[in-house]
Design goal:
Shape: elongated
Structural class: alpha+beta
Number of strands: 4
Order of helices and strands: HEEEEHH
Radius of gyration: 25 Å
Number of domains: 1
Largest sheet: 4 strands, antiparallel
Distance between the termini: 33 Å
Mean pLDDT: 78
Helix content: 40-55%
Length: 155
């Protein structure tokens, strides 16, 4: 019975999460994040780091993202770019230099955007395991109670 309630709650939560739009809350309580974000990879490679028009520009990757409550669950189609604040530069020479020096694994998304998805997964798996074990203990108690009742009826 508890497992059915947990599954039902999960379905309702999933429906709420899928029902919200791009980085905004609608009627539900979920905030869904979609679109693009830029993740830092490091400083611009030489000799681009010496160019005055690229002063303060960092190397990174512009990716399509999907997330919930600013926790990025998935990112894809990452393109090497240079960026400064919210402005990115994707001229071919810069893209080629960034791609030669950095790989996608060099991105630094931070804990909340990058690692919290694993914390959420661990929490969901833990709740599922707890629901299964509590269901098993409820069944064991019911079986013990019926066995005690049958023994007292024999005496």
């Amino acid at each position: 019975m508890r497992l059915a309630r947990v599954l039902c709650a999960g379905l309702v939560a999933g429906a709420l999460l899928l029902g919200a739009g791009s980085a905004e809350a609608r009627r539900g309580i979920a905030i869904i994040n979609t679109g693009n974000d830029i993740f830092e990879a490091g400083p611009l490679p030489a000799p681009l780091d010496k160019e005055p028009q690229l002063a303060g520009v960092q190397a990174g990757f512009k990716c399509n993202i999907f997330g919930v409550f600013w926790i990025y669950l998935h990112w894809w189609d990452c393109q090497p770019v240079g960026f400064k604040g919210d402005t990115y530069y994707d001229n071919p020479e810069l893209v080629k230099a960034v791609a030669a020096k950095y790989k996608q694994g060099d991105m630094k998304p931070g804990f909340w955007k990058g690692m919290m998805r694993w914390v959420l997964l661990a929490g969901a798996l833990g709740m599922g395991a707890l629901a299964l074990f509590s269901r098993k203990s409820d069944q064991d108690e019911t079986e013990e109670g019926s066995a005690d009742a049958s023994k007292s009826g024999e005496a």
